[in-house]
Amino acid sequence: MSALASPVPVPQEVAVHEGPALLAGLTDGPSLAAHRGRYGALPEVGLAALRELIRASGLRGRGGAAFPFVRKLDTAAGSTASRAPGRRGGREAVVVVNLSEGEPGSAKDSALALTRPHLVLDGAVATACALRAREVHVVVAGDRPAVRESVVRALDERDDAVPIRQHATEPRFVGGQARAVVELLAGRPNLPVTSWAPEAVAGLAGRPTLLSNAETWAHVGLLVLRGGAAYRHHGTDREPGTTLLTLTRPGFVPHVHEVGYGTRLRDLLPPGVHGHPALVGGFHGSWATWPTLRAARVSVPGMSALGAPLGAGVLLAPGGSCPLTLTSRVVDYLAGQSAGRCGPCHNGLPALASVVRELVHGDADGGVSGAAGRAGRLAALVTGRGACAHPDGTARLVRSVLAVFPDEVAEHAAGRCAVEPVGSAAEDAGEVAS
Amino acid sequence: MSRRLRVDWPSCRARGLCHELLPELVDLDEWGYPVVAGEVTDALLADARAAVRACPRLALRLTDR
Ligand code: SF4
Ligand code: SF4
């Protein structure tokens, strides 16, 4: 089966906005000279000092799960210390910079690679040195050539004490999943496999593998270069720091913004999408209505409490076009991206996609409640039953569309859509009126 | 800590032997793949171990999380 194209193409261009911390001084350009001119040489930090910097900042991973980064670091450091008997030199750690945004709606790690590659690399190198890691791997998305070129150029400029190797994922939604990346590094197919232990305990070749996305490493880099006070200068007391967000509108170049936590979300949304719902967290995310978006502040716990977790910071805003039609196209695409390894995902996602299609196109067997019920049951059935969280994320999206748009789902099932098709006069009027 | 039966999904080929050996814990979905419910209690431990050994794809494991 040939996979359906993503309703939002993988971005080849990104509009990157000047920001308060990671994205400060963009006009300097991405070169190492400009980077060192701004931040100075990368200081050497011991593991204890690095740990304290990260712990005091409260830094959470920016790949979507928002896991406290200090815990990941501790796990990797602890696993390094526990030497396997008979193995000389213990279990040296491996550091991985995951730049492979498999999510087409996301461009924030691409933005960093294009504008701030040395901040990302400094974070990874400082950590690798503190852990006395064996090597650093930088993994880019195979279908974002400009990102790869920028990373290669940056690596050519550097001369680090630890070897850095660059790799490219297969162009596939789940190609950037942590275990799929470890498989790629190990020379095996770039697909997720069952994880019996966290990567930080046993990842590449069984070594403790500290793998994180580019944004997390860039924050570590800035912590090392500028210290913890500079980090806490932004954000709120309870949630210090800044975060990157990608605003993706179908038909537009994605925009990447850096904002302090606590910023009003609506300040980031262009007038053209005001008054309309948006998909928060990308293709595996949740829909939020305009009243929710209007009241929301950029916050990990805050957005979770609103039922629209920030995830990796993607805001997919279709403006005035139909959110149900978009969801159906996303689920079709996701079903084709399952890589077919795990039975429940391989069978369940296409079945789920077809029920969603029936609902949206108004030819649902057994009426709307029957089809909605089937969609809910299939979503529950696939959840937790795969080597990776792809079925869970797809199910989340389907549950969200059913929960957030019950009236629209009923209208569609009856063969009506209240929203004009994309690019219609109504939408253009909306751009002006809002 | 609860003991659970976990499936290595890329390995499982829906042979359904696990369901035959451990119907208390393992159901099958409409495609024949196992649906594992709940915790492996002490009473079920021996049967669970038997299912792990019997799986022709070595796709089952007992884990502590
Ligand atoms: S759960 Fe789905 S996407 Fe993930 S590895 Fe299995 S088949 Fe592939
Ligand atoms: S016995 Fe093994 S291969 Fe067969 S269904 Fe159960 S887990 Fe899958």
TrEMBL record, chain A:
Cofactors: FMN; [4Fe-4S] cluster
Keyword Iron set for record: yes
Write the signal peptide boundaries: none
Identify one Pfam family in the record.
Complex1_51K
Q: Which GO terms describe its molecular function?
A: 4 iron, 4 sulfur cluster binding; metal ion binding; NADH dehydrogenase activity
GO BP terms: cellular respiration
This one is known as NADH:ubiquinone oxidoreductase subunit F (NADH-binding)
Biological source species? Nocardioides panaciterrulae
Question: Lineage of the native species?
Answer: Bacteria, Bacillati, Actinomycetota, Actinomycetes, Propionibacteriales
TrEMBL record, chain B:
The protein here is known as Ferredoxin
